[in-house]
Specification:
Elements (H helix, E strand, L loop, with lengths): L9 H7 L30 E6 L1 H6 L8 H14 L3 E7 L17 E2 L2 E2 L6 H11 L3 E7 L12 H4 L1 H7 L2 E3 L5 E3 L14 H17 L4 E5 L12 H15 L14 E7 L2 E7 L3 H26 L4 E7 L2 H4 L39 E5 L23 H12 L5 E6 L8 H14 L3 E5 L1 H5 L11 H8 L2
Parallel strand pairs: 1-2, 1-14, 2-5, 5-8, 8-11, 11-12, 12-13, 13-14
Antiparallel strand pairs: 3-4, 6-7, 9-10
Helix pairs in contact: 3-4, 3-14, 7-9, 12-14
Length: about 475
């Protein structure tokens, strides 16, 4: 997700220029126009969860959490300012785990920082969190198995994963190339059974090994719109077309030009320039892959400990989130037939790929400095605006139909906040209006001024924002 300096704000930037594709046409505010009200979540929570990224907090230059005494001190301070729980990153982009695993190497040392010998970092964090009555959620980077900067992980070290399972993407010239060849981390193809099996094994291992309240999937998606154009995906897509659409001509497709005919560069992103006849069905294929994996992942969690909550983190910018192959809406929400919001990429049956019904909780990244719709004349009369906190929370509830508690999230370090009061105001608003509570990204941004754009410790912003 949100690895401190690795946050990809490209989707946000694209959305700022594509607002018209999902703009609500009426000019009156939702309370004046008889806005459709989704069902009310029966279970309302009021949690304030601090995300704890492993790379930044344990091994980062200013990270504190490789030291057990500093873990205790940091958790004490989080408790003091009003935090009620943690999301602990236990498997990062390298694919290595922050605990002793049967499926991966235990990452104990990196960049000059080392976890004390004999200490299970995850076990220690959970034990200390419980002493402070924190809720504890474990998070994994699901479909990334190699850190590009370190050339570390299965995509770099295992020939099978490098040559067969690594995601194949299209570059701006339409060439199919390994994702790591574009300078990105080692994303893998989510459609491959062996890739899914590894993720499911790790999920079951974590749930069985630790007393956690919930299991959170991060990066449970494709790289971006350029993925995955491997031969495996081609053949799998053909089967999908034959089974779902009875397309007897699918085998004759020109791949990948019948999906994307040409590409263009927009900023630092490669995007479709012209699309082919199979493009929208390709989008449904990819969201079907992710939906079906979520069914399996939920079952995996519940098979070990039924009481453990199953959830995920996604970006709140639903208008462009189709690009990563994810439909986090309810299956009851149909973007193709929505009379209020227009999504040009939608296609019949897209709603059937919505996975909200699989979730016990959902965290959305509401990573915007604009808080209220009325703060900008251009959005003041909109009901759902995916690039403001208020608008994206309303939109999230609208498309998920309140099937689960929704946690709004604030990025305290990578967004250009004008001052700490703005952070506090956003925390207050999210906690009051999200049905689950607020997720605070990330702990390192709070205690390390070098890791936020205000260049100040942010403890007071948290204390004020979480004050009751």
């Amino acid at each position: 997700m949100k690895k401190f300096i690795h946050i990809n704000l490209g989707l946000i930037l694209i959305g700022l220029f594509s607002l018209s594709s999902c703009k609500k046409s009426p000019s009156t505010k939702p309370e004046d126009e008889g806005e459709k009200k989704p069902p009310v979540v029966e279970e309302r929570r009021d949690e304030a969860l601090a995300w704890v990224d492993a790379r930044s907090n344990v091994f980062g230059t200013y990270g504190r959490l490789s030291d057990t005494s500093m873990i205790k001190t940091t958790l004490d301070t989080l408790k003091d300012v009003g935090v009620t729980g943690l999301v602990i990153d236990v498997k990062g982009s390298s694919g290595l785990t922050m605990y002793p695993s049967n499926y991966s190497e235990y990452l104990t040392s990196q960049d000059g920082k080392t976890i004390p010998a004999g200490v299970d970092y995850v076990g220690f964090m959970i034990k200390e969190a419980r002493k402070r009555n924190f809720k504890v959620y474990a998070s994994i980077v699901t479909f990334v198995e190699g850190e590009r900067g370190k050339s570390r992980g299965k995509v770099f070290e295992d020939p099978l994963w490098r040559d067969e399972y690594q995601s194949i993407v299209c570059d701006v010239n339409g060439n199919r190339v390994p994702v790591t060849g574009t300078g990105k981390n080692g994303f893998v193809n989510p459609a491959i059974p062996a890739v899914q099996e590894r993720a499911l094994n790790i999920i079951k291992e974590i749930v069985g090994k630790y007393e956690i309240d919930g299991m959170i999937l991060d990066y449970a998606r494709y790289t971006d719109i350029t993925a995955d154009f491997s031969d495996f995906s081609k053949n799998d897509f053909i089967k999908f077309l034959e089974n779902k659409y009875q397309d007897s001509e699918a085998k004759k497709m020109n791949f990948p030009s019948d999906i994307v005919t040409s590409w263009k560069l927009s900023g630092d992103q490669v995007l479709p320039n012209a699309t082919g006849k199979y493009y929208k069905r390709w989008l449904i294929y990819r969201t079907t892959v992710i939906h079906d994996f979520f069914v399996k992942a939920r079952a995996a969690v519940k098979s070990v400990k039924p009481a453990v909550k199953f959830g995920t983190y996604v970006g709140a910018w639903y208008t462009t989130y189709y690009q990563v192959g994810v439909n986090w809406a309810s299956e009851e929400y149909d973007p193709f037939n929505d009379s209020e919001i227009r999504f040009d990429w939608a296609y019949p049956d897209y709603n059937k790929t919505g996975y909200a019904e699989q979730l016990d909780l959902l965290m959305t990244g509401n990573y915007f400095t604009q808080l209220m719709l009325a703060d900008n004349p251009a959005t003041a009369n909109l009901a759902y605006h995916w690039w403001s906190v208020e608008g994206s929370l309303k939109g999230g509830k609208y498309i998920t139909r309140n099937k689960m508690p929704l946690y709004g999230s604030i990025d305290m370090g990578n967004v250009d906040w004008p001052n700490q009061q703005a952070i506090s105001n956003t925390i207050k608003y999210i906690r009051a209006n999200a049905t689950g509570g607020v997720m605070l990204f990330d702990v390192v941004h709070v205690y390390a001024p070098q890791y936020n754009r205000l260049k100040q410790p942010l403890w007071n912003a948290l204390r004020e924002g979480l004050k009751r």
